[in-house]
Amino acid sequence: MRAQFVLSEIGVGLRRNLTMTFAVVVSVALSLALFGGSLLMNDQVNTMKGYWYDKVNVSIFLCNKADAESDPNCAKGAVTDDQKGQIKTDLEKMSVVDSVTYESQDEAYKHYKEQFGDSPLASSLTPDQMQESYRIKLKDPEKYQVIATAFDGRDGVQSVQDQKGLLESLFGLLEGMNVAALAVMALMLVVALMLIVNTVRVSAFSRRRETGIMRLVGASGFYIQTPFIMEAAVAGLIGGILACAFLVVGRYFIIDNGLALSEKLNLINFIGWDAVLTKLPLILATSLLMPALAAFFALRKYLKV
């Protein structure tokens, strides 16, 4: 009988404050969708970092004859065979190095023509103008500085470059977008909490006669508060279900179909469905508990039921 009464009161409360309930549902759905999207964006950035950092190399570019005339780092002349041999030997002895690949001037010229063959500069270049280099794959991509310290400024070395640095700006942009999404999510969450508190207060005020009668007949404070708390929880849960739907549809539309980024951007390792599905229980739990707790404290602080 009590459970039936609570359920009937929840339905009455939701219908009486239909407009505010709709606002609560929408604000909770948007804020939790942004929250879930931020979590997925963080997973995507970490996935991309793990994928690309494992593939980037450190490159040691060696001096050629042209560099000896124009680059201060190559003032002692082009790299010699002895210097190249010593560099390779020292690299292979380093514990941070996984593998070392040598690229000759002819190979560098061939790769340049393949990548930039349409460039006006390509027609004027010759193989002897290209730089020989060692491409080093590190066991830990974060250990770039060990290579730079050991070889930067050495005779025959023009420069030491870390390809990981080229990716930092991209990951910085993605993380900045993630922070912006979290900021908007926090704002929407505050709006949702304010709407929940106001909805509970209005609902309690509109039923003050019923709650007064319940107090007179000896109903406990928790029993009186339960319908209001459940109203907020139900509205929040509906918003949470919508947020989950937004994430599932968004993942399907953006990555799999619609925009189909997984087909258009083959070089990016996108997060899978497992990453999305593991976030849904958290979103549903948050959508249920957050409004319920907000309603509980609102009733205690403001209505003194």
Automatic annotation (TrEMBL):
Residues 56-160 form the FtsX extracellular domain. It comes from the Bacteria. The chain crosses the membrane at residues 21-41, 179-200, 232-255, 275-299. It is found in: Cell membrane. Residues 183-301 form the ABC3 transporter permease C-terminal domain. It holds the Pfam family FtsX_ECD. Keywords: Cell cycle, Cell division, Cell membrane, Membrane, Transmembrane, Transmembrane helix. It is a multi-pass membrane protein. Forms a membrane-associated complex with FtsE. Belongs to the ABC-4 integral membrane protein family. FtsX subfamily. Part of the ABC transporter FtsEX involved in cellular division. This is Cell division protein FtsX.
